[in-house]
């Protein structure tokens, strides 16, 4: 593997001559300081020397390429933002903002039922509060799991119906959204949005929510013979969840 490399020859202009014809195939080698100074001085002199026809004409300064490209990208982003805001895709824009800047929430004991979700910062009206996260399952699997949860002693139901075929199960793998309690006079509501051809459930605020205020929404359970009592305590309480 050891072999002698031929010495690098220099051309008449002082630059190193590449034996193989390509600088990349010869690997890395150091350049003498003298040669480097010659190259820098020549390039600087060429850059500072004005052309012959610029004695009368004044050429305006051109912005740097990276600066110009950055300003064009920012203007394009502003155009896209304005088009998104004025169209039906505003929900998608809000959802992206919610992913990068999540609302400050906490769960603790609630006067309505067991655990509840509370706001740790003021939330304006018509804002995305939190996404209801869980496993997307079919109706058949939901019926099987509901029976199994009853056998295991899990009294609360954390299943949220998206459409006729899809249900989100947050019983054993979900986020803080499953702690939101029902209220007949809620300060939030649930909405189904489509993100990248996938349906998601997002909790929106109906009104301004203060700090330490409990977040609630209407479960909208179907009407059944076996009634579930409601403990929200609001003035217009219906008395039952279903």
From TrEMBL:
InterPro entries: COMPASS_Set1_N-SET (IPR024657), Post-SET_dom (IPR003616), Set1-like (IPR044570), SET_dom (IPR001214), SET_dom_sf (IPR046341), SET_SETD1A/B (IPR037841). Keywords: Chromatin regulator, Methyltransferase, Nucleus, RNA-binding, S-adenosyl-L-methionine, Transcription, Transcription regulation, Transferase. GO terms for biological process: methylation. Gene3D superfamilies: SET domain. It comes from the Eukaryota. The keyword Methyltransferase applies. One of its GO terms (cellular component) is Set1C/COMPASS complex. The keyword RNA-binding applies. It is found in: Nucleus. Residues 226-242 form the Post-SET domain. Pfam families: N-SET, SET. Residues 103-220 form the SET domain. One of its GO terms (molecular function) is RNA binding. This is SET1B methyltransferase. It comes from Urocolius indicus (Red-faced mousebird). The lineage of its organism: Eukaryota, Metazoa, Chordata, Craniata, Vertebrata.
């Amino acid at each position: 593997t050891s072999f002698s490399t031929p010495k690098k020859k220099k051309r008449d202009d002082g630059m190193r001559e590449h034996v193989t014809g390509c600088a990349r195939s010869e690997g890395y080698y150091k350049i003498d300081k003298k040669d480097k100074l010659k190259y820098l001085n020549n390039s600087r002199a060429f850059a500072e020397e004005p052309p012959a026809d610029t004695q009368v004409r004044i050429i305006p300064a051109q912005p740097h390429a990276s600066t110009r490209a950055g300003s064009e990208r920012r203007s394009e982003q502003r155009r896209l933002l304005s088009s998104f805001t004025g169209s039906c895709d505003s929900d998608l824009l809000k959802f992206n903002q919610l992913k990068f800047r999540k609302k400050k929430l906490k769960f603790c004991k609630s006067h309505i039922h067991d655990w509840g979700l509370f706001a740790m910062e003021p939330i304006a009206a018509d804002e995305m509060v939190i996404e209801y996260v869980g496993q997307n399952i079919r109706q058949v699997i939901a019926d099987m799991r509901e029976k199994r949860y009853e056998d295991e002693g899990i009294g609360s139901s954390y299943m949220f119906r998206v459409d006729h075929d899809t249900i989100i199960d947050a019983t054993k793998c979900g986020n803080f959204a499953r702690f939101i309690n029902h209220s007949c006079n809620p300060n939030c509501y649930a909405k189904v949005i489509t993100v990248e051809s996938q349906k998601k459930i997002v909790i929106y605020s109906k009104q301004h929510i203060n700090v330490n205020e409990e977040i609630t929404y209407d479960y909208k359970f179907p009407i059944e013979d076996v009634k579930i009592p409601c403990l929200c305590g609001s003035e217009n309480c219906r008395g039952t969840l279903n």
